Amino acid sequence: ITTSVHANGLEYIEVNSKLCYARILLQGAQIDSFIPKGQAPLLWVSSADDYQPGNGIRGGIPVCWPWFGQHPNADWPQHGFARNRQWCHFSTEVQDEIVTLKLVLPLAAADRRFWPHNTRVELHCRFGQKLRISLVNINLDDHPVTLTQALHSYFSIGDIHQLIAKGFNGAHYIEFGAGPYVQTEDDVHFERETDRVYNGLGAVQQLHTPHGTIVVKREHSHSAVLWNPWVEKSRRLARFNDDDYLQMVCLEAANVLEDAVTLAPGERHELTTEISWQA
Ligand code: BG6
Q: What are the boundaries of the signal sequence (predicted)?
C-alpha cells in the first residue's frame, strides 16, 4: 500500500497485493483502477482526461452524492459535489491479503449551502480478488434527511457492439426522461444512446463480453443506471474522445428516484456494490 502524488498534485493510494492492483484518488474517493491478479483492468478511464484537480475523472468510479443527476437548482453541479472534493483516508486494514481502506468526506463550510444537514459520509473499499465498495451514510442530525446517490462505475468492455448486459428482466426503467417501460427481454444490446434508470431491479447484473463476464452485485439498492452516450453525446462530453463510447459502459449501483434514501435521526445506510470477473 503506497501513497503518492500525481504530477498535477492529485494524491492517490495504490494497493498491490497477491490478489489485485487498485488505485484510489483522494479527490472524490475515486477508484480509477482495479485489476484482479492475472486479469485485464475492469474499470475504464478516458485517455482524454488529464487529471485536473477540481474535476471528477472521466472513468473509474465517481461517487455521486448527495444527489444523482441534475439538481432542481439548475446551476448546482450535476451528480452532487462529492466527486470533486478532497476526501480523507482514515483507516487501513489488511487481512488474508484483502486490503480495506476507509475514507470520509469532510463537509466544508462552502458546501453547507448544498447540504445543510449534519451527516457523515464514508466510502469503504475492500480490494481482494473482487472489489467491494460501500457508500455509508449516517444521519447525525435531529431531523430526517433524504438523498440520492450512485457509484457511477465505468467498465472496460472491449467492444460495445459485442456487449450483452443481462439481469434486467422484469424491471421498470425510465429512458431519457421517458417511460416508465418494462424490460421484457433478458438481454440488453447497445445500438444507440442508452441512458436508463432501472427501478425494482434484482441484485445481480452481468456484462458479457466475448472474453469473459463482469459481474456486478448490489446491496441496499433497488435502482441502477445503465449508460452509454453513443456517437452524438460523445462529441459533447467533457474529457471524452469521440470514439470512447465504443469501449465503455456505465452500470451504476444507485439509490435514485423512488429508491431515494430517507434516514431517520441516528440511522445508517450502506449502498454496496461488488464487482468481479468471470473468465
Ligand atoms: C450518467 C447519466 O449517469 O452520467 C447521464 O445517466 C450523464 O445522463 C452521465 O450524461 C455523465 O455525467 P457527467 O456529469 O459525468 O458528464
A: none
